[in-house]
Specification:
Blueprint lengths: L7 E4 L3 H13 L7 E2 L2 H10 L3 E4 L2 H8 L19 E3 L11 E4 L5 H15 L43 E5 L5 H10 L3 E8 L8 E2 L4 H10 L8 E7 L9 H17 L9 E5 L10 H18 L5 E6 H6 L9 E5 L14 E9 L4 H9 L4 E6 L9
Parallel strand pairs: 1-2, 1-3, 3-5, 4-5, 6-7, 6-14, 7-9, 9-10, 10-11, 11-12, 12-13, 13-14
Antiparallel strand pairs: 7-8
């Protein structure tokens, strides 16, 4: 009999492994509340025998087995010893008190794969195509890792524009004046493509000029009133050579996140979106979609936990890829706007992108709002801002 999500706790002791734990949780529909970076919480859960604690990465594995850093703990045990032992074998049952599951792999990537495999097995939701056994475990080391902290916080509340949503405009925004004009006209959100797909790693590259950076600058100069939401699109190619969909997504996600972070803006995007319109083959199965999107999420989280990964697809892709089961926000494309309505629905759809809007635009906006998304977009045929809302 398998475990339920509230019976698991993923424990990470540094920020990179915390990002991996969040990505695993997203991959397997595990609530983010089942991820912790708090040593004392992990200790108490492990001692109870009522929660399956998974040590995500070497620092967490060392902390639970040895506490080599000498962190405060509920038992007031000194550095170098704990009452806990590691279990390497997969399980679908709670372990006895003072036992935890070792999710540490040989490196960060192997830790992600191992942890995801173990958690999927525990929940009886194995990830197709990931093999019949996880990557091998690495034994705990009695050394205090420099990256380890007794409490790894989650900056989950990003300094994003706190918009109530609505219908924004997707455009190229070649100049600061163009973005400022769209804000002045009263658009609820701004969106553009920041990067185009390339056939080799990192599978996307930033555009020049970069309209995304222009949006960041325009929002930073906004004073008073409601700040529009911001969606950053990145066209991403499928994998080439020996790369997997996961590794291609990971490469693209970390690249995109680094570019966005380098804007050094007052705000971060509400969503950093993978747009599957690059080179090479696109995913053909739900498993390939899952691996690609989770790689994207893992890459983004590895750079900045405050950034929210998301993805953009048409209705057919959403349906055939079973993407309603992916625990990432989804934006779905619809065309035409007039007289249309979505034929797909899902718990992760946060908005719709309608093609093409016409001036005056009020009727198109009303139609898109009727589709039920919160963060919606319209696009004019010339990818400009042809009129205000």
């Amino acid at each position: 009999m398998s475990l339920s999500p509230n019976q698991l706790l993923l424990y990470a002791a540094d920020s990179v492994d915390y990002a991996s734990a969040l990505a695993v949780a997203a991959l397997l529909n595990l609530p983010a509340s089942q991820v912790t970076g708090d040593f004392a919480q992990a200790w108490a859960a492990c001692a109870s025998g009522q929660t399956l604690v998974v040590a995500v990465g070497g620092p967490a594995n060392a902390a639970l087995y040895y506490n080599p850093c000498g962190w405060p703990n509920p038992a007031n045990s000194p550095a170098g010893s704990t009452p806990f032992s590691a279990v390497d074998a997969p399980t679908q049952a709670l372990l006895a008190a003072n036992l935890y599951l070792n999710g540490a792999g040989s490196d960060r990537t192997q830790t992600f794969y191992r942890t995801a495999w173990l958690v999927g097995y525990a929940l009886a939701t194995p990830i197709p195509g990931w093999g019949v056994s996880p990557p091998p475990a690495v034994a705990p080391q009695n050394q205090c890792p420099p990256s380890a902290r007794p409490s790894v916080g989650c900056p989950c509340h990003a300094p994003t524009p706190q918009s109530a949503g609505g219908v924004g405009v997707y455009a190229s925004f070649p100049t600061l004046a163009a973005a400022q004009a769209a804000i002045a006209e009263g658009w609820a959100g701004l969106a553009t493509t920041a990067g185009l797909g390339i056939p080799q790693p990192p599978y996307t590259t930033v555009l020049t000029p970069n309209g995304d950076a222009v949006i960041a600058q325009a929002l930073a100069q906004t004073s008073g009133g409601k700040v529009p939401f911001w969606i950053s699109f990145w066209t991403v190619s499928g994998p080439a050579g020996s790369d997997s969909f996961f590794s291609a997504g990971l490469s693209a996600g970390s690249y995109a996140a680094a570019q966005v972070k380098a804007y050094s803006s007052v705000y971060l995007p509400n969503f950093v979106v993978l747009d599957p319109e690059g080179y090479n083959a696109l995913p053909q199965t739900p498993q390939e979609w899952n691996q690609w999107l989770m790689g994207w999420a893992e890459g983004i989280y590895s750079v900045d936990l405050r950034l929210q990964p998301a993805f953009y697809v048409n209705q057919s892709q959403y349906q055939s890829g079973q993407l309603g089961q992916v625990a990432l926000p989804a934006l779905v494309a619809l065309s035409p706007i007039e007289g249309n309505a979505p034929f797909v629905s899902g718990p992760n759809i946060i908005g719709y992108h309608g093609f093409y809007a016409h001036c005056p635009v009020a009727q198109d906006l009303s139609t898109v709002l009727s589709w039920g998304g919160r963060y919606n977009l319209v696009q004019f045929q010339d990818s400009g801002v042809d009129c205000g809302p």
